Amino acid sequence: MIMKIRQLLISFLLATNALGAASQVSKTYYVSKPGTLISMMTQEEANSVTHLTLTGKLNAEDFRHLRDEFNNLKVLDISNAEIKMYSGKAGTYPDGKFYMYMPNFIPAYAFSNVVNGVTKGKATLEKVILSEKTKNIEDAAFKGCDKLKICQIRKKTAPNLLPEALADSITAIFVPLGSSDEYRNKNRWEKFAFIEGEPIETTLQVGAMGKLEDEIISAGLQPKDINFLTVEGKLDNADFKLIRDYMPNLVSIDISNTNVTAIPDFTFSQKKYLLRVKLPHNLKSIGQRVFSNCGRLCGTLELPASVTAIEYGAFMGCDNLRHVVATGNKITTLGDDLFGANAPSKLIYKK
């Protein structure tokens, strides 16, 4: 009986690993001639790729294929590819317009397109790694790429950023060590979250209260280095204290699948890089100044229907936050100056 259970467990683990592996398809291609990327694979192969590394030579035709095909592309690494000049109508510019694309420029509309007057970005793209040779990121290159959380640039001096090329409210910029000030002082880069070094992403299963630090250490990480954190399982006040005091470089945190019902005072206060938060499904209360002075927290923050209390100054200084949406009708406690003294309320109730 024990042997059968063990065999079933092994079979389950193998099946789970196979499923996880099947969800990520990584490919590396050397493109010897610009404009020939799509000829190196079938349409089915292109659409199966989630993580793509390209070396060699690319041009605007290749970017058009990356944009319009490769339907599941999440991560694109072109840090060791050279972008060649191209003139013609088969590039990325909308409506087949003749355009001259310059060398080592990320082309205009590289990952966005205009359809019936509406600009739509590549919906699957989450991370892009650009070469140290990058000179420009052209107009609307990544406009509408709403899931693009990481743009990593190997270049120590900031490339020119053209209008609407990147959204500072969506994408964190990872740059070489010692170069963030140079980027920050460059025109159109001022409002981005700049972090030096490699982006660190981790998903942790925490089986017992107060064990978040143990899981981080077991993963071979240090709390201060983590940028993108997903936690599932159990958290308590000691875990939130760890997040508050020792995780200054968080860009995104997802605690939606935890047991948490209350977020303690000041937990995320003054986290200057924080762009996105997913709250626990069964959350009931948000403490005082939990998100105060998270100046880059952006978009719309949706509160679970279970929330009953939001305390004083919870969103004070969150100037980029568009709305806080209450999805339920259970909120009975609203602290004074939720968004700061004399600041307009951004709290809306979803019908």
TrEMBL record:
The keyword Amino-acid biosynthesis does not apply. It holds the Pfam family LRR_5. Keywords: Signal. Residues 1-20 form the signal peptide. SUPFAM superfamilies: L domain-like (SSF52058). GO terms for cellular component: extracellular matrix; extracellular space. It comes from the Bacteria. PANTHER family: FISH-LIPS, ISOFORM E, SLIT RELATED LEUCINE-RICH REPEAT NEURONAL PROTEIN. This is Cell surface protein. The lineage of its organism: Bacteria, Pseudomonadati, Bacteroidota, Bacteroidia, Bacteroidales.
